[in-house]
Amino acid sequence: MTNRPQVLRTVAALRRAMAPYRKADIALVPTMGALHAGHLKLVTEAKKRARRVVVSIFVNPTQFAPTEDFGSYPRTLEADMKALTALKVDAVWAPTAAAMYPEGFATRVAPEGAALAGLEDKFRPHFFGGVATVVTKLFTQVQPDFALFGQKDYQQLCVVTQMASDLDLGVKVVGIPTVREKDGLAMSSRNVYLSEAERAVAPTLYRVLKASAQRIKRGEPIEMVMEEGAGEIRHAGFALDYLEARHALSLKPIASVKDGPIRLLVAAKIGKTRLIDNLGV
User: Fold this and answer.
1) Which residues of 122-134 are buried (b: 16+ CB within 10 A; e: fewer)?
2) Least CB-packed of 30, 94, 195, 281 within 10 Å?
């Protein structure tokens, strides 16, 4: 019978478990659980980079606004453990909220730069402070050599990469390409919220990103392409938050292909489900 990864619930237990691992490289895959094929791809990539792999599972309350889905966010620990056992993960760091934010906790990380790009931060102003704080804690708790994040949350990847560098956390942040369903929809734990009709429409976001990237490569004006893409997304039934062409590294607005590498980013709501996606040009 395959051995299950040890599940660690307290910082003290985590540190005891990590001590012998430090003789080898350690890779961390931070997650909020409800694991899907995208998460499992991160784990397989982690195993290529390090002899020891730790997966964190923590639904972080500080990155949810009161109106968001913290209470209903899918929690599937037993299924997650089966998947991680099959991949021979070494340990699962699954702390309680009290372990992460004990009584009297009073310190926050306040990122700037890409965290203030006017994308996710415009619609979820609480989000990156919560992400930066919890990821800093995860990095200092596990002390990994590598940390793997999916590119689907592209702005988050930029923020975490900058933060790890700026704070000298000693972690190499690795972005892994988005894993998609056969019809192009980016895999996400929140996809389970979609009704059958909404699920049929959801791949529109990726189709628009692909078509827009191809048009920009052909030399069509970025502003026009973005405007027409936004119209197509709205016509499909989405409430669009943004469809933007940004510099792929700084996330600053970009007007021409001459301004640097381009990343197209989109966020939109269909029904009650908010989806995000992105694509390089």
Assistant:
1) eebeebbbbbbbb
2) 195
How many whole angstroms separate alpha carbon 203 and alpha carbon 186? Answer: 8
Helices within 50-153 (DSSP H only): 77-86, 97-100, 120-123, 127-142
d(CA 87, CA 71): 29
Burial 171-184 (b: 16+ CB within 10 A, else e): bebbbbebbbbeeb
SS3 51: coil
Residue 52 host element (H or E): strand 52-57
Sorting pLDDT into bands at 50, 70 and 90, what band is 65? Answer: confident
Quick check: 1 pLDDT over 50?
no
**What is each CA distance from 231 to 60, 184, 226, in whole angstroms?**
34, 20, 9
Sign of the torsion formed by the C-alpha atoms of 45, 135, 192 and 234: negative
Q: Which residues contact 46 (CB under 8 A, 6 or more apart)?
A: 27, 28, 29, 53, 146, 148
> Exposed, middle or buried, 259 (CB in 10 Å: 0-12/13-18/19+)?
middle
- Residues assigned a catalytic role: 39
Closest CA to 120 of 251, 237, 208: 251
- ∠ CA 235-66-9, nearest 5°, is 115
Question: What pTM does this model have?
Answer: 0.94
One-letter amino acid identity for 245? A
Q: What digits encode the pLDDT tens for the residues 221-250?
A: 999 999 999 999 999 999 999 999 999 999
- Segment 71-88, tens digit of pLDDT: 888 889 999 999 999 999
- Which domains are assigned to the chain? 6-176 (3.40.50.620), 189-280 (3.30.1300.10)
